[in-house]
């Protein structure tokens, strides 16, 4: 009888691990929806660890038909949330790509049209002459100061 109980406990533990993974992916999906990217990255590390643990546990346990169906339902929910979260991540990646493109164009324009800096050591300001040279005075119709 103990063997049957141990098998039941192992199957329940496996389903609890899948339920924990589902809770994790739901939380990550919500973080992506709220655009909380830094926290999402932190949670992703936890998610990967859960997946690794689950793979090891899953390899060592054979489920009966009832538990197999429950596992399939949990996996379906996990995958649905994962797909939705990935879609939000793709949208964010595309948005960041556009922002990077705009930033690069602005930098190129700034380099092309910004006033050129004088080389180091040549920063003395050029002062206007106090009087207009005679040959320019005739052209402008103004008199020297």
Automatic annotation (TrEMBL):
**Database matches in Pfam families:** FliT
What species is this protein from?
Vreelandella rituensis
Q: What is this protein called?
A: Flagellar protein FliT
Which intervals of the chain are annotated as region Disordered? 114-145
Q: Where in the cell is it found?
A: Cytoplasm, Cytosol
Q: Keywords for this entry?
A: Bacterial flagellum biogenesis, Cell projection, Chaperone, Cilium, Cytoplasm, Flagellum
Primary place of residence?
cytoplasm
Listed Basic and acidic residues bias regions: 132-145
Q: For this chain's UniProt record, which GO biological process terms are given?
A: bacterial-type flagellum organization
* Highest taxon in the source lineage: Bacteria
């Amino acid at each position: 009888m103990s063997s049957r109980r141990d098998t039941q406990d192992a199957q329940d533990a496996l389903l609890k691990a899948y339920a924990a993974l589902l809770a994790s992916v739901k939380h990550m999906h919500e973080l992506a929806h709220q655009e909380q990217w830094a926290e999402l990255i932190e949670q992703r590390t936890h998610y990967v660890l859960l997946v690794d643990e689950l793979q090891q546990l899953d390899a060592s346990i054979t489920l009966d038909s009832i538990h197999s169906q429950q596992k399939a339902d949990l996996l379906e929910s996990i995958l649905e949330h994962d797909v939705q979260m990935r879609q939000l991540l793709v949208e964010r990646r595309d948005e960041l790509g556009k922002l990077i493109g705009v930033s690069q164009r602005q930098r190129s324009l700034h380099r092309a049209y910004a006033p050129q800096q004088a080389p180091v050591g040549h920063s003395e300001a050029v002062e206007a002459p106090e009087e207009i040279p005679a040959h320019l005075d005739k052209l402008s119709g103004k008199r020297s100061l």
